[in-house]
Write a structure and sequence with these properties.
The protein is an alpha/beta fold and 641 residues long. 40% of the residues lie in helices and 15% in strands. The strands form three sheets. Strands 4, 13, 14, 15, 16, 17, 18, 19, 20 and 21 form a ten-stranded mixed beta sheet that branches. The chain has an eight-stranded parallel beta sheet with strand order 5-6-7-8-9-10-11-12. Strands 1-2-3 form a three-stranded antiparallel beta sheet. Strand 9, helix 9 (223-235) and strand 10 form a beta-alpha-beta unit. The radius of gyration is 30 Å and the shape is globular. The relative contact order is 0.12. The mean pLDDT is 93. Bound molecules: pyridoxal-5'-phosphate. Pyridoxal-5'-phosphate is lined by residues 99, 101-102, 124, 126, 148, 248, 251-252, 286-289, 336-339.
Length: 641
């Protein structure tokens, strides 16, 4: 047997395949991060981050945001477009926007805007609240502010306010009635924003969000509505404001062919509209640029079968080809990529605090006089197991286990006998699992033993709060231990969170081609913490998380690179997660009245002589203090009051 190396671990967790160049393992066997995507030059040891977090008395679970990753992704998107536009001799420019809904966190939006200044990178909004923030943060005159989503009068008035502030606001008409409302309002307010038309394409995506495109899509104008819209704008002498053509066929488009279809159809619509007299000069391809979460480069839901370069080449070259063919000038290209920009920049760090075999085989199964035939038969199966008698032994054991339950229900077997039989059954499973390790060919049936015998690792976090998509849509996310990566992880595990919900578990992991049902992790050693990270959580997860079981928002640290620092980073900001009191308040509880109820009751107990006054004060203080604390498990041993 050759020695297990760090390279083996990298392959096992497929780090290079999903990491986008940002993640690696350092010689200490710790997960490391290249926040600037500069292979090796600037690397942050994640265990140094854990140390620093501990030093600052910040508890896990925590979200860690690498602002430099966010910046790198903005640069990556823009530079890729610039390069390919140049190479293709495309006449228009790239002018992207960030869709706020993907991560509304102010610091995230601010960072993206700042990194995007050289590129006039703008914002896309889908609601009034998002527009309020875009108006305040996207202050550049050249950058676009693109307004999608349902719009009422107030939304449109906000757009006109943007117009008065000299912003490049484009109201995208998604429903025909919005155009009429906008025309009415603008004649009243004597001002008009730029107008975009969102087309309902027949092309649609594959993957989870395919319903965003196609004829049944929620948004977009049909061909007839587009024609009618152009006629209406001409009639009101407002056609000069129609500058942008838009489509969006869904998020995480897994198959590049769907983009090709959509771009081709969209480009044809664009050129036709121009020929109808629409002075368009922006072609907005929406979002959908996917992230290869599982690194399989396939059309599976958590993957994509193309690279950023493939995507950009398709947009640029297809648009050029069709415009040239139709003799229409090349428009500026707009994209609304949110997932690609934000997914990589944040991760959830947590600690495994306990493990449980589904089955504990520590029970005396020695033969006792007068035991039932079922028990002794089970023991015989165990004793006789060998390579030649593994699969059949498994069948026999399964059969005996069924008989055991039947016999118990009929009052033939005692509880003690049932216990012994069941334990023997699990011992048989364990032994067969060992035997299969030496087999050249493992029968399909015996493979199920791995999941039957998997260990459960309990992690201090809530799936519902931190990675809601893992629960809601079976999103696969990379999960990797943060340390001990120079050692072979030998325990096959599923993960459980600390909610009381049976859905609060993870039993699907990134595998070689198909997902694995178990994740190999290291043995827990008593007294030593074991940390794991869940990666690529920067898109959509933050805002979609909920407060199931009243586990609230988690502690959050923002990390910046600093080449002068020995560990290459510093914590720029710490945003405390919510306390029990804050969680309760959102559900309309009043802390003060709850505390006074408890105090009153404690007083009564004192009066009845059931409690000493001193005890009652301590207990009241204890109850009161709990409100201020973090809602997750406190894994530091503390003294009792
Ligand atoms: C959600 C959304 C986006 C973002 O899509 P990603 O796949 O995250 O890039 C872009 N545009 C519109 C209109 C959207 O609704």
């Amino acid at each position: 047997m050759t020695q297990w190396t760090i390279e083996d671990t990298k392959k096992l967790y497929h780090i290079e395949r999903w990491g986008g160049g940002y993640f690696d393992i350092n010689p200490k066997g710790h997960l490391s991060i290249f926040p600037k995507n500069t292979n090796g030059v600037m690397s942050v040891d994640i265990m140094d981050v854990i140390e620093e977090i501990k030093k600052q008395k910040i508890a896990l679970p925590a979200i860690v945001r690498f602002h430099d990753i966010l910046r790198s992704q903005v640069v990556r998107l823009n530079e890729t477009f610039i390069e390919i536009i140049k190479e293709a001799h495309y006449q228009g420019k790239f002018i992207g926007v960030f869709p706020i809904k993907v991560n509304q966190m102010r610091e995230v939006v601010e960072e993206i805007i700042e990194a995007g200044v050289p590129y006039h990178f703008g914002l896309e909004t889908g609601s009034k609240s998002e527009l309020l923030s875009a108006l305040a943060f996207n202050t550049s005159k050249q950058a676009l502010t693109i307004l999608n989503g349902y719009k009422d009068q107030e939304y449109l008035k906000l757009a006109l306010l943007g117009e008065k502030l000299d912003r490049k606001v484009v109201v995208v008409i998604e429903k025909f009635t919005e155009l009429k409302e906008l025309l009415a309002l603008s004649s009243e307010m004597k001002s008009m924003p730029w107008i975009g038309f969102r087309a309902k394409l027949s092309a649609k995506g594959t993957g989870k969000w395919s319903a965003s495109g196609g004829e049944k899509a929620k948004f977009g104008l049909t061909a007839a509505e587009i024609m009618e819209g152009i006629r209406l704008l001409k009639k009101h002498r407002m056609i000069k404001y129609l500058t942008l053509f838009h489509f969006h066929i869904g998020s995480q488009i897994t198959d590049i062919r769907n983009f090709k279809d959509a771009i081709t159809e969209g480009a044809r619509m664009y050129t036709e509209m121009v020929k109808q007299g629409a002075p368009l000069h922006y072609f907005d391809v929406g979002g959908g640029l996917g992230v290869d979460y599982d690194g399989t480069k396939t059309t599976q839901d958590s993957s994509v079968n193309y690279t950023l370069e493939d995507y950009v080449e398709n947009v640029v070259y297809l648009m050029k080809e069709i415009c040239d063919l139709e003799k229409v000038p090349h428009p500026h290209l707009v994209s609304e990529s949110g997932r690609m920009i934000t997914a990589y920049h944040s991760c959830i760090l947590t600690e495994v605090f306990d493990s449980g075999k589904m089955i504990n085989t520590n029970y005396n199964t020695d033969e006792k006089g007068g035991e039932h035939r079922i028990v002794s038969n089970m023991r015989e199966v165990f004793d006789e197991l060998n390579n030649g008698y593994a699969q059949e032994g498994y069948h026999d054991a399964l059969q005996l286990k069924t008989e055991c339950i039947q016999a118990f229900k009929l009052g033939v077997l005692s509880l003690e006998e049932r216990a012994v039989t069941e334990i023997l059954f699990w011992k048989i499973c364990n032994k067969i699992q060992c035997l299969t390790k030496q087999m050249d060919f493992i029968p399909e049936e015996l493979k199920e033993l791995d999941s039957l015998l998997a260990e459960q690792y309990f992690c201090n976090f809530s799936i519902f709060q931190s990675i809601p998509d893992a629960w809601a849509i079976d999103q696969l996310l990379p999960i990797v231990p943060l340390h001990r990566l120079n050692k072979k992880p030998e325990v096959l595990c599923t993960l459980a969170d600390i909610t009381c919900d049976s859905d609060g578990k993870i039993d699907q992991f990134i595998g070689d081609s198909a997902p694995w049902q178990e994740l190999p992790l290291h043995h827990l050693t008593p007294g030593d913490p074991y940390y794991i990270g869940i990666f690529l959580t920067g898109a959509y997860q933050d805002v979609m998380g909920d407060m199931h079981n009243l586990f609230g928002s988690v502690n959050e640290v923002h990390i910046y690179c600093d080449e002068k620092d020995s560990s290459c980073f510093y914590i720029e900001d710490f945003i405390p997660g919510s306390s029990a009191e804050q969680n309760l308040a959102t559900m309309q509880y009043n802390t003060h009245s709850m505390i006074s109820t408890i105090k009153k009751k404690l007083n009564q107990q004192v009066q009845k002589g059931k409690l000493r006054p001193k005890e009652s004060v301590l207990l009241a203080n204890f109850y009161e203090n709990c409100f201020k604390n973090y809602s997750y498990l406190n894994l530091n041993k503390q003294e009792n009051p």
